[in-house]
Amino acid sequence: MDNSNIHQQGDCWEDKAWNLLSKVRQQSPLIQCITNFVSMDIVANTLLSAGASPAMIHAVDEICEFTPVVHALCINVGTLTPEWLPAMKSAAALAAELGKPWVLDPVAAAASSFRLKACLDLIELKPTVIRGNGSEIIALSNASVGHSKGVDSLHTSTDALEAAKSLAQASGSVVAVSGAVDLITDGHRFVGAHNGVPMMQLITATGCSVTALISAFVAVDPSHAFEAAASALSIFGIAGEMGMNLAKGPASLRVHLIDSLYNLNEATVKNRVKITSLP
Description:
Radius of gyration: 17 Å
Keywords: ATP-binding, Kinase, Magnesium, Metal-binding, Nucleotide-binding, Thiamine biosynthesis, Transferase
Catalytic activity: 5-(2-hydroxyethyl)-4-methylthiazole + ATP = 4-methyl-5-(2-phosphooxyethyl)-thiazole + ADP + H(+)
Pfam family, one: HK
Protein name: Hydroxyethylthiazole kinase
Pathway: Cofactor biosynthesis; thiamine diphosphate biosynthesis; 4-methyl-5-(2-phosphoethyl)-thiazole from 5-(2-hydroxyethyl)-4-methylthiazole: step 1/1
Largest sheet: 9 strands, mixed
């Protein structure tokens, strides 16, 4: 039985998650992050604590020289401006042309027609993974502007299951939907990552951070983006669970989450990974 069949059946997820985290620590992939002002600090620290090397390079004049040397690109539209959009498009187009993985975080995709069009234009540049909450994924799948609650989701991840499938099939991307259970699909396979704690939702930019972590995991195994996305979501959730054991509230959870990600060992990962196949 080949590895693709093993992963499709949901077996060996513990080994896969640990192997990917180990590769990130060993290879320290360089991840270019064109991300939002709110998330820059925690995104960079999440990548560093996992063993990756973050680079917050967003000037369009640097893209042609810098993007070719990175191992993966992460684009987050949280504080989107007309000035930053050309750099996002240029970097994504160059990454796609060079065969480098890149990951899109379509923050609040339905909040405005400008934002939705920007996300749809970026999807045309073939992201390896799209990671968003339920409302964002539904908006992209429906390609329509509607009411959204800022960066928060009005839908659960399970509400977005069919939308995620449609978006994955239409875009060719792996689609990951964050929620109480994180859903991951390539349009054919579906798994759920069941790790994490509710208080993580009270820390700004945890979603942005896990998108960056997905980028690092995809960087070290670009031919298995489905497995990399699911593993990164589970690993980040485990770090949240471990951090919650020490936290007194959201602020201390933020600190302990990053520390826990840095300190994860093989036994902890293999004992706590909860990734299951979905019908």
